[in-house]
Write a structure and sequence with these properties.
Layout lengths: L14 E7 L16 E12 L5 H11 L1 E2 L12 H13 L11 H25 L10 E4 L5 E3 L5 H8 L3 E7 L9 H11 L3 H9 L5 E4 L1 E2 L2 E8 L2 E9 L4 H8 L8
Antiparallel strand pairs: 1-2, 2-10, 3-8, 4-5, 4-6, 6-7, 9-10
Helix pairs in contact: 2-3, 2-6, 3-5, 3-6
Length: 259
């Protein structure tokens, strides 16, 4: 099951194998929910091949413009197992009234996968139209690195400037209960794409989860790279809730791993 399309200007032809985390350190104290500001990643890609001459240009474009903020394949479980649970839960929801989940255990993973699937599809549609990184009238904008959002009735010069500077981003819904802040063509797109996934909508609605918004664009901070033969070492920082694979898919050929 496809989980989202790549951007049209992805770094075509560059492939790599054997990416790995160089190190990871455990913290001694439990991290409260919402306390994580972000993560830093150190990743090694081995057996790199392709148009190496375009690599630095592509990395510069990522720093300047960010990448599509896709949920990574790990959100959907091994062999998309969380999505299989969505199908089973949707069938059960049609036959009985379900109580609200607390979002824990396998049930929580399944619900997250359902919402992430629809988000990725909406993001892919915005990538197709070239609007994933540009505000549209009727959008709901997100302040970079924060949960604050606001409705965009019209896109003025100041909003265009702030969006170009990666200070604000357009968003898409994590579906749930409550009226959407989106309007006009943006709302029509989000609604029409969500309807393509009736099973995912069914399980989320049955659990009466509150709707949320997530930025369509991911800002990549402190991006550094080192190229030694066919070995590429990457370092970068991302805000909380983001996936390192969203950046990797724009640098190397990870499409097979994301479908």
């Amino acid at each position: 099951m496809p989980l989202g399309k790549r951007t049209p200007d992805s770094f075509a032809g560059l492939k790599g194998e054997g990416w790995e985390v160089l190190s990871a350190d455990a913290h001694q104290r439990k991290l409260p929910r919402g306390a994580l500001e972000g993560n830093r990643f150190e990743i090694t890609v081995r057996q790199l091949s392709g148009d190496i001459a375009r690599l630095r240009e592509r990395l510069e474009r990522i720093v300047a413009g960010g990448v599509p903020n896709y949920f990574g394949p790990q959100r959907f479980g091994r062999d998309a197992g969380n999505l299989e649970q969505v199908l089973r839960a949707a069938a059960a929801a049609e036959a009985e009234t379900r109580g609200r989940s607390r979002g824990r255990g396998d049930q929580g993973f399944m619900l997250s996968a359902a919402r992430s699937l629809i988000f990725n599809a909406i993001l892919a549609a915005r990538v197709e139209t070239g609007t994933w990184n540009r505000l549209q009238p009727g959008d709901v904008a997100n302040l970079d690195g924060r949960g604050s959002v606001f409705a965009v009735e019209a896109v003025d010069v100041d909003l265009e400037r702030r969006c170009a500077a990666l200070e604000v981003h357009p968003t898409a819904p994590l579906i749930g209960a409550g009226e959407s802040l989106a309007r006009s063509a943006v709302l029509e797109l989000e609604t029409s794409v969500a309807r393509l996934f009736p099973e995912a909508e069914t399980v989320v609605r049955a659990e009466r989860m509150n709707a949320e918004r997530r930025a369509l664009r991911l800002r990549v901070r402190d991006l550094e790279h080192q190229l030694d033969g066919d070995v590429l070492r990457l370092r970068y920082a991302l805000s909380a809730g983001s996936f390192a694979t969203a950046v990797l898919r724009e640098i190397i050929g990870l499409q097979d791993a994301l479908e």
